[in-house]
């Protein structure tokens, strides 16, 4: 019931029943979400994903956010630190998962240790301009929401989705180009390899190889969903299958196995340095676009951008205080 009431508050306003007590609510009340006031509540970012935090237990109100911003401009309150602490913890945990994934890939493939930086490859002026336009449109939608202009808000949000799709498509093409260059540098299997001397390690039988391929495919799918630990477990299971002794089966003509089989077994995974999802250098542009437009990637991208913004504001604030302190010391220390 409480969760349903909170949803009604967000859709129709906390004073939907004309309660005088609700009218008197202030932005500094304890039941008001400070993170939303600052501009971003993590509870809204990861809905229906692995990182779903559930509905926010506190009130979200654009009117109270406006009042907070007015109070902040006057130096009355500043909740930037509250949001910074929360999203900093989220990013630290994400970076730990990325580090574990990279370490795992490094053990399998030394080249994966120099994984492509998704954030660097995809940050070109055109993408940055689209991101800027998206932020401006979201502010415009909030303003229409505050004014009760629902139709205009819906239209603006439709434009936002179009801009996000354009950005995701552009980012996917940039990363695909980088992956193509990365793939070209990988050792290419010979089309008709010469017969080799028997090795002490026997190759897995066809059934085991099929199970290995399924585990690798599952690891890739889990990685795209941001389920890093589960993906690593699937990779470990694939490794364990590789070490199983081959069962005695009829001899199969090795010429039936081609370079395509090698590619399936060796997915050449890379890790997204923004959200921690696994990406393959063999992914298509559509699959990469789905990744960039997914809630998990967009959510982590927003909190990383917000953290950088808050850190800049904190630096500017501290620098201003230091300059003013120095000025007053100089002004009143000498006769």
From TrEMBL:
Family membership noted in the UniProt record: Belongs to the Luc7 family.
PANTHER family noted in UniProt: RNA-BINDING PROTEIN LUC7-RELATED
Q: Which GO terms describe its cellular component?
A: U1 snRNP; U2-type prespliceosome
GO-annotated biological processes: mRNA splice site recognition
For molecular function, the Gene Ontology terms on record are: mRNA binding
Q: Which InterPro entries match?
A: Luc7-rel
| Pfam families with a match to the protein in the record | LUC7 (PF03194)
The protein here is known as RNA-binding protein Luc7-like 2
